[in-house]
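Appendix B: a complete holo record

For completeness, this appendix reproduces one full record from the ligand-bound portion of the collection. The bound molecule is adenosine-5'-triphosphate. The inputs are the chain sequence and the ligand SMILES; the output is the full three-dimensional arrangement of the complex, encoded as structure tokens. No fields have been trimmed.
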Amino acid sequence: MGEAPAFVADDLQNGYQSNGFGSKSKDCETTISIRDKTYVIGGNDDESPLSVGVRIFDKATGNWEIPTVLGTKPKPCKSYTAVSLNDDRILIIKKGSTPDDCIWFLEMDTHYVREQKKNLGREVVAWSKGVSGNAEKPVVISGPSGVGKGTLISMLMKEFPSMFGFSVSHTTRAPRAMEKDGVHYHFIERSVMEEEIKDGKFLEFASVFGNLYGTSIEAVEVVADSGKRCILDIDVQGARSVRASSLEAIFIFICPPSMEELEKRLRARGTEAEEQVLKRLRTAKIEIEEGQSSGIFDHILHNDKLEDCYEKLKKLLGLDGTTVAIQKSSSQGINLPAEHSVSKIDNKIIVTPELERASKSLIVLDVSSLKGGAPGRTRGLDVYAIDSFSDGLNEINHLS
Ligand SMILES: Nc1ncnc2c1ncn2[C@@H]1O[C@H](COP(=O)(O)OP(=O)(O)OP(=O)(O)O)[C@@H](O)[C@H]1O
Ligand SMILES: Nc1nc2c(ncn2[C@@H]2O[C@H](COP(=O)(O)O)[C@@H](O)[C@H]2O)c(=O)[nH]1
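The structure of the chain with adenosine-5'-triphosphate bound, as generated:
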């Protein structure tokens, strides 16, 4: 339990203005009660002052809790609207924010959050930004060291720079001559990384060839924020962890033509000392077996001739012109009115402008097809406007 904030329990009953949807707001905070907890969302986060704070009042114990907040946090704004969805997440509208930043989800009881609560042994919430449309799933590329994962990913990023973004992993290994911090990896001290793992900042991590490697939640979200499809280059242990997590992804295993060829490539790359080469080759045997039999992977590609393998990779990602082109992830392009009230009809949240009610459009946030969520983005949000006030309501009632 955290220290009692300046805001006291009585405030939950007194002095808070209802935002019209079961939640109340004061200044730049909104509160919403779900089961035996009241969530106070807004103001500034104590740890990172440039992001929205979250506090929880437990009505049963009368205690305040400052939860561990996972995921990239939204930047604060003047006021918020909060709507509970299925009692496991709260849809937050950042009033007056740009279309690509106005809809967020605060997860408090989703599968991912429950897992994190178990792992961390404390109260956890997780932010996930809402994006409309069916943003493409991240791509996990795995395979033994030296098989050509990095080479294939570089080719993809070079040919489709606006489509793919690389998830920059953290590692405790030393940088190689040409590697840049923040580009190839975030190079980090082991003790710091271990601390960050304990704080739940990593989607997955593994000890690989004597060093720690891991994908931070932020690394995946940074890519999603840029509207690109995320590519992860991780080992088989990492792929297994991501498969078990709630991040929906496509899993591709890259296989070498033979152990001899793998050894040739690893040695020709010239980045590893002999002891490391041998360690990597020993692990490769186990990884190849696992890659082909574990059921983790959706696709196995053999990287014999590089160009052939690259063509196959493009084909299965729908980039060879024979399948439907990848849709770029897009955020909702509709401006939500800064001053509004909300109501909910089944899976539709109706946003009604406060001013000139009759003449303005209603905005509908259809949450019936939500996918993904923390860690990462919440996809499948359908945002549309309905022009006439009365026609709009009829249409929504008709649809629901
Ligand atoms: N199909 C191929 N034929 C021959 N050489 C290849 C092929 N694919 C990649 N290579 C070469 O093999 C070496 C290893 O490739 P790369 O660094 O991409 O492997 P990796 O799987 O990313 O390894 P690591 O997991 O250690 O990062 C590089 O020198 C690369 O140029
Ligand atoms: N589980 C994870 N594995 C990772 C991650 N980033 C890279 N890797 C894998 O480590 C080995 C070695 O990489 P190298 O750069 O030292 O050659 C390789 O198999 C990578 O795929 C990660 O974040 N998590």
